[in-house]
Amino acid sequence: MKLVAAPTRGSGPGGPADGSAHTQKKRSMTRCTRPAALAALAIWSLPAPAADTAVELKRVHMCCEGCAKEVVKILRGVGGVGGVTADREAATAKFTAADAKAAQKALDALAAGGFHGDTGGGKGFAFPDDSGVKPGQVKSFTVTGFHNSCGGCVKSFREAIKGVQGVAGDNAKAKVATAEVTGDFDAADLIKALNKAGFHVKVKD
């Protein structure tokens, strides 16, 4: 009688050979999916991008559409600043900045253009305090660098300084960014009044 050896478990299809191939394939898939899993973990671990800083400036000098357009032009020229709008009637300018540093650059640019405003304070940025004024009574005081593009600017300038005790007059002229103020008044009070009216000024040497 001829004996036929029973097939060893796994020697045929699905046996050790096929099992070995299956194991290798599984290991290969594991090696392929592991980097993807690590990458996904890295993405979840990344810090969220910082939100833009929203800035609203109040009491910015804008006596006409020309002034408002100049404010917008200046702000749009600053890197990291977007969403610029200006409301002449409300005397406000709004924009978003990538961070406080960009916001500060925007305020510096406005100041260089002769504009001032109220930031609300406590936000990590402010208009530069670079007028160079020294408190004390003066009879003649010349300021320069303020925005002055039309007769409306001159009118706004005069409206601002008439509330300063002791001011008697001035020689401001349209499209001239320098003016002499006369009387008997405190120089620091004059600067504060002009800043409050939206004019950034400096003492003329």
Protein topology:
Elements: H1 16-45, E1 53-57, H2 65-76, E2 81-87, E3 92-97, H3 100-112, E4 137-144, H4 151-161, E5 167-170, E6 178-186, H5 187-196, E7 202-203
Antiparallel strand pairs: 1-3, 2-3, 4-6, 4-7, 5-6
Q: Structural class of the secondary structure composition?
A: alpha+beta
Number of helical elements: 5
User: What overall geometry do the principal axes of the alpha carbons give?
Assistant: globular
CATH topology (fold) name of the domain at 137-203: Alpha-Beta Plaits
CATH architecture of the domain at 137-203: 2-Layer Sandwich
Features:
alpha+beta; 37% helix; four-stranded antiparallel β-sheet; 7 strands; single chain; Alpha-Beta Plaits; three-stranded antiparallel β-sheet; 5 helices; disordered N terminus; 205 residues
